[in-house]
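In the current project phase, our protein records have gained a structure token line. A sample record follows, to show the layout:
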Amino acid sequence: MENKKFKNAIKEIKEIRMTESEKKDILYNIFNLENNERSSVQSPWSFYSFFYSIKNNHLVYYVVIPLIIILSGGGVVFASQDSLPDDILYPIKVKLLEPAEGALKFSKIEKAKYQSELAKNRLIEAQILANENKLDEPTEEKLNKLLINHTVSLNKTVNKVHKDNSKKEIDELITDFSAEMNANARILEVINEKEDKYKDTYQGENEDNKKGNKISKTAKESANSIKNNLKDEKNKNKDDYKNKKDKVEILIEDIDKDFENKDLEEFYIEDEFIDDTYNKIDEAKKYLEEAGKREIEGDEDEASSLLFDSESSIKEAEIFINSEFRFNDRNRKRD
């Protein structure tokens, strides 16, 4: 009987006819309810209370997502996946689709990887908007808060994973996250520096014209905070340390050789990133050499920490090489 009622409800929803504009407006309003003024006494039967319960009950996503996809004809929800913070569909992405996908990650390590990916996505979104001169203060604040939330969630999950003794996987995740945050923070800084240089040159030096690097700063702080999870989880096993050291040595050699063999005239990469790549490769080599010295001296904790820095640095270099980031034509012409 209940099944029949549910099917009838689905059928009725399917028969709803709305324009694309109406669908967007309704879904946008649903996912921005927290911005609306609410009375001090909230009815337990209000739609807000209903939606709040949905956000806090992962199982409900199995029902709610199909219903909203049906309601929107599928297009609105799926179109939101590539939306940016200045898009009307963005709240659907960050308040429905991403939390729903996260709820479907059942292992702690998979949850941690997904949270790391979301943090990286927020940085890339900031880069795209900054490159188009659309990263205004409210949008920067919105992205910054999301980035902080992703990092807090990631740290909590990482702590739980450590308790489950999934050391090798989580060490790799922490190293990758640190490299992604630092490298993408640097890319965002370069974009902002170019934009500020343009404004200083063509509009005069005006503090109101300068964009801050709040997101870049948060990203670097996120990289440092996640590294703190390794303090009590160093490579206590000598075989683990040796295996990781061998792996980092090979990684440095391969990336160094790959970069040296690239035709930089043909392989378009910004001058700043060429310099940063060379610097990161040199930095990785120095950290590795210093780790070897500390290992000989018997300071295993410091050797492990330096080995982490070496691996993170060489992965940052790899991100610069493979980023394929392109400044827009306006930025290229003005430099």
Summary: Residues 33-51, 201-210, 329-335 have pLDDT under 50 and may be disordered. Residues 108-233 form one domain. The chain has three domains: 1-35+44-104, 108-233, 238-335. Residues 137 and 211 are 8 Å apart (CA to CA).
